[in-house]
Amino acid sequence: MYYALGSAVCFGTASVFQAVAAREAAPPAADRGGSGLDTALLLRAVRQWRYLLGLALDGLGFVFQVAALRSVPIYAVGAALAASLAVTAAVASLVLRVRLSTAEWTAVAVVCAGLGMLGLASGAEGEQSPPGALRWALLGVVAVILLTGAVAGRLPGRVRALTLGLAAGLGFGVVEVAVRLIDEMSPVALLTNPAVYALLAGGGAAFLLLTSALGSGSVTTATAGMVIGETVGPALVGVVWMGDRTRDGMTWPAVLGFAVAVAGGLVVARFGEPEPEAGRSVDAGRRLSVRP
């Protein structure tokens, strides 16, 4: 779990810088295109030092995430990633100087309690051999994600943000599952493993879609969609097809810990669009989000 928590810290901190950069790079509403695959927005965002710093932290977080996925079940890693919302809230309160309410700090504590329960209940990663078709299925999921992003830009307001956030979360979920399906590291094995291509395509699509959601949609709604997409689906895949289990007699504490951590993360997600303190601009109060 230490690696999973390290990835949560990196991703959560990166989100603060990336959210500010994405909002500053976003065009006026009248100039936005009809697709959620806004590559121009991503190209504008990466020209800013905040976004590049966020990418560097994301890279470090990904290293921790891979290490975690090699040692603990996917559901434990997914819950830790949901906890990155709590990290985002805490870091943003320092960097952007927006005050967290008592309820929001309570939600952060709930996330930590859920992760503590999950850490005590989690067993080792599953050793069950997944079906070979799962690797190809991941590529199919990526295709659906890209198609969803292409049409999501035509949807209204919060529906657009929720759709883009959910699609981005599924992309990050593809990365989590794909890491577990890469079992041989020789050049030939990597080039012939569909999971490698699913990992690259899924991660790229997720960054693109979430950046689009952050730049023009409701941060809270996009965040909620992303958390659901990157936690629930991969956790089920790990349990059903990869043999992820808990310690003996600890199934219900693990289920409860997972639910508490994710629910607490969703509560913290509303911090993405808080009411600003007196004397602070509404725009500054809204420049929060979670990782692309």
From TrEMBL:
- Which parts of the chain span the membrane according to its record? 49-67, 74-96, 102-121, 133-155, 161-182, 194-215, 221-242, 254-272
**Keywords in alphabetical order:** Membrane, Signal, Transmembrane, Transmembrane helix
InterPro entries this protein is in? EmrE-like
Signal peptide as annotated in the record? 1-21
- Is the keyword Transmembrane helix in the record? yes
Designated name of the protein: Integral membrane protein
